[in-house]
Amino acid sequence: MSEHQMNGAEALILSLEKIGIEVAFGIPGGSAIPLYDAMYKVRKKMKFVLVRHEQGAAHMADGYARATGKPAAVLVTSGPGAANTVTGIMTAYMDSIPMIVVTGQSVRGMLGKDAFQEADIFNLTLPIVKHSYLLKNANDIPRVLKEAYHIATTGRPGPVLIDVPKDVGTDLCTAGLDAEMNLPGYHPEPKGYTPETLQAIADALAKSRRPVIVAGHGAVLSHAEDELRTLAETMQIPVTSTLLGKGVFPDSHALSLEGLGMHGTAYANRALVECDLMISVGARLDDRILGVPAMFCRDAVKIHIDIDAAEFGKLVKPDIRCRGDAKTVLQDLLPLLEPGDTAEWRKALAGYKKKWPLGYAKKGGLHPPQIIDALNKLTGGKAVMTTDVGQHQMWAWQFYKCDKPWQFISSGGAGTMGFGLPSAIGAQFGRPDETVVAIVGDGGFQMTMSELATAAIHKLPVKVFLMNNHYLGMVRQWQDMFYDERYSGVDLEGNPDFVQLAKAYGILGLNLKRAADIPKVLKKALEHRGPVLVNVEVVKHEEVYPMVPPGKPLEDTVMEHPKKKKGRPAGRRATTAATKANRE
Amino acid sequence: MNKALPTHNLSIYVANRPGALVRIAQAFSRRGFNIESLVVSPGATGDFSRMTITAKGDEAGLEQIIMQCSKLVDVLACREHSDEEVVARELGLVKVAVDAAQRGEVLQIADHFRAKTVDLTETSIVLEVTGGSEKLDAMVELLRKFKIVELVRTGKVIMARGEGET
What we know:
The complex is a heterodimer of chains A (584) and B (166). With 584 residues, chain A is of the alpha/beta class. Chain A has 24 helices and 19 strands. Chain B is built from 4 helices and 9 strands, in the order βαββαββαββαββ. The longest helix of chain B is centred in the middle third of the chain and has 13 residues, at 100-112. Chain B is elongated. Classes of the chains: A alpha/beta (584), B alpha+beta (166).
C-alpha cells in the first residue's frame, strides 16, 4: 500500500511499527474498530496480545518495559476501555515506565456531548501521564507517534497517551511516515550539571568517613550499574538500593546493605542514621524510604543526583544537587575521585549486619519468606521476578537476591495490587527464554486473575506463586500493630480453590501445604514447560520485619512485634488474635 | 494565615497546545497554591502563549511548582520575577453608580489616577484605569464611597526590564 492511500488508523499502526514498538496489548471496542481493522490490514512485525481487562494490558506493557527497557503499546477503546487503563497508567507514571497508550475516542463531532462510551480520557489522565495528545487531524499521526516515543523514552521516562477519535482513524492521512518532531519545550538534558558541581561532589566524598550510596530506579533506567559498582568499589562505599533499584548493585556484594526504608534491612537504616554523607543516585527519596523526611540523614551531607530537577527538595533538601542522567554523571565523576578511608565505617556496618540479620520463622506452618528463600536458592536469583503488592512483595524484596538490574519487577510508587500476574506476562513476552516468576498474594491476584487466560492462550511459562493467607495481610499487620487488632475488612473468606481455577484455564495448578514438600513442588513448578499456579497455604498471621512504623524516623526501626504498645492501658493481650488464628 | 504568605509573579512561556493551561493549573492546585490572577495571551509568534500568574504560597512550594511547570513538555520557560525586576501593568474597568451631583467627584478621582471615562449614562459611569496593581487598588478604594456596580480587572501582566528575559 502506498503511503498516500492510508487512513489515520493505518498510519497509526504503521507508525507504531516504525518507531519500534514490538508488542501491543489491548482489547477492541466500538471506537477502536478502525485501529483494529488497520492492525488486521497493515500490521507486519508488531505482536498483538488480546487481554481480558484493560488494566491487565497496561500492566503487561509495564512489565514488558521493566524487563526489556523498551516501551510497549496499549490499544484500547473509548470510555470504559480507556478508563480501565487509568490504574495501569498511574502505576507506570509513578515508577517512570515508558509506555504508549492509544485510546479510541468518539467521533470529533460528538466530543463533549456525552456520546455512547465517551470519556474525556485526555483530561482524566492529565496528572498521571508524562504527556498526552487528543488527535484532531489524521495528518498529525506520524509526527505525534514519533514525539510520543521520544517523550516516553528520554529524560525521566513515562507513559504517553494518544486519544484517537474514530473518524480521525478513518480520515485519509496524506502525511508521510517520516515526520519531523515539533517539541520546542522538551529538552531532556543528560548533562544538566557543571564541572564545579562534580568537583563539589568529589570533594565531599573525599572528606567523608561514613558515606552511603542510595541507588534507585534512575540508576537502573540509565544502565549505570557498572559505573555505580566502580564508584562503590573505588571509594569503598556501602550501597543500599530502593525497591525499584534492586539489583543495580549486586545484593551479594560485600558492600551491599540491600534495601532501606520502611521494610528495609535494619543495617541499611542504621547506616543512614549514622552516615556523614548520603549520595542518592537516581532515587527520588520518597516517603517510604525516609521515615520522617526532616530527620532523614539530618547530620549528613546530602547529595542528590537525578534526571528530574523537580525531585530536588521535594521531601529532602539536598546540599548538592546534580541534575543529570545517572550513568553520564557517574562517568564524569569517576575520574575526579580520590579513594577515602571508610574502613572503620565498614567494620561498624559489618557488626550491624551480624547483629540484625534478616530472618523469618521456619516452624508452625509455611511462611512466605521461606518459599521466596527456597525460590532464590533454586533459581540462583537469576529468574525475573515480579510481585504484587503487600507483605509478600516486601518479603520478595528482602529474600530474593538479585545481582543484576531488570530482574525484579514491582509496583513501587503506586503500590498497585493486581500488578503481579499481568506484569509477569508482559515480562515473559519481553524475555521469552528466561524464567519469569510472579509472587502474588491472594488479595492482589484476584484483582487481575482473568489474565490467566492470556498466559494460557500464549502458553507463557510464567510461574505464579500465590502466598495464600486468606487475608489482606499488610493491612491486617497495620491493624494489628497500630489499630489494636481491630481487623476490619481484611478477611478474604470465600477464596476460590485456586488449583481448580488454574485447571479451569487449562493451566497446571499445584498445592503446597507442608514444608517438607517445598523442594518437590517448587522444582516441579519451575521445570514445567507452561504456565503454573502454585497455591501456597501459608500461615494466616505473619508480619513483615524490620519495620519503620509510620511517622517514625529510621532510628526507630523495629525487628519484631512490639511487646508493649505505648498508650495502650492494658498492654497486649496474652492470647492475641494472631496466635489464635495460627492455632486454627 | 493565608495573608502572611508572599505573592509571587510567575511568567510562563508555553507552546500553544491543547491542555497546556490545564496542566499548568494542575501543578498549582495539587500543591495548594491559590492562583490570584492568570493572564493568557498570544506570544510574539502565534505558536506560543505567554501566561502571567500571580499566586500566594510558601517558598518551598513555589520552587516545586516552578520545577513541575518547567518539566511540562509544552513549557519553554517558567520564571519567577521580583517586583523590582519587571514592569507590571494591569487594566481595570470600574462601573460606578453616580447621578449628576456625584459625577464631579468621581471624575476628579479618575483624573487623579489618569483613568479614562469609557461610558457615561444618567446613572452610571465606566472608568478605565491602567497601571500597577497597587494603583488600581487605591483608586477602587476611593471609589468605594460611591456604589461600585461592577469591577473587572485583567490581572497583572509583567515584562522583564532591560536585557532580562520575562
